[in-house]
Amino acid sequence: MVIFLALIWYGLRFLNGMSVIAPTRAEVIAWNLADFGTLALLFLGVLLDRLKAANLFSVRGKADRTAFRLLGVWMVVVGLSVLLGILRENPWDYLIGDFYRYACLPVVLTLLYYSVKDQMGIHNLLVGFVVVYGLMTALDLVRFNSYDERLTTETAHQAGIIAPAVIYLMLFDKRRRARRCGGAVVFLIIVLLIRAQMITPIVTLLLALALFFVFNRKFTLIWGAGMAITIFAAASFFYWAVVSADASYIATKVVMAQGSEGALGSVEALSGVRLGEIISIGEEFTSHPSSFVFGTGEGSLVSPDPIPDLSLPIYRYTEDKHFIHSGLFDALYHNGAIAVGAFLLLLLHLFRRGWHLHSAGNPFGLFVMVTLMVTLLLLSYDLPLESSFPLLGICFSGVSLMEWGPHGGAKPIRAPTRRYGLDPGPASGTVATS
Prior knowledge:
There is one protein chain. Helices cover 70% and strands 0% of the residues. The protein has 17 helices and no strands. It is an all-alpha fold.
């Protein structure tokens, strides 16, 4: 039941962004309330399940305590940023929305940590996320088959971050059905991205496959690379032959980049307003250095500053907007360096534990490593922070269960534990994906 609620919560995140028309403020609030309601039900399910345990909220090992301390630091700083926003009389509706977005990080990771009890459970949750994403992608393609413009829905934006999970199942799952499901989802992702003319997720998909190959040079990866290339070619042929894609958006951006003045102008033309957003945040901290520690507490973002280039459309910078493309810079602007530092330390902590599992021969460790590297890349450029929460929750809960063992633990980890700060308690060096 708890896993089912987690899958419903994950699916709602895509339904929220399926409209091709910008949602009104009332619609955004309604979807946030639905998201909050689902998380509340998930919390109640986890609480009822934990009441049966001897220790209500015990952790599995010392390494997990480190992760929870970092999440606690994040939560405290987010609360302080909200207080700063209140003192500065910033808009209440945006303050509440931003607090909810950032407070969901420790909440989601904690709920997913206690939702799953064994390695099979974390594997089933990961498969469930991939299946839900595949269904949402198919729904997008069916609903907007006759839509002539770019299909930039939430499924297209999050294609890059789900790619490591899809590739992991396609290459390492012992069940043929799951491997075929992974291949089908890769096909749908490529068709969707060609339909949306989105370069960043396609590059991220290929990067994730390359990272799997770099860290695990086996025949399985060579076979997987060949299959991925075959799927990419088939999806490209299918789309351009059947749907007749129009690549005018990508062509326009390339022409603008070629005609821009200097490297910054070319990057700005290719990135939209992303570079202007980062420059605006830097200028804010330059003008108010004290905001760098705990953030600005702002409920809206100042207009991005354009790069001086007459060939770029200035109208993109004329309106204030709340959304910032880069999740890391968004968090830095609102919550400051301490919160972002705690988040980066959390990623490093999970990465080291994933490396430990990978060194012990567990493919799940490789999945964690690739997911964290892809997540950091996307959050630095094109993805809001909250988009990373589901997969971060899988990584956090998964490394804990893989270290602890399939049945609560009986054997110690074979690799050294002191170097990584892991609990020298029971662990498993094999993957349980059957």
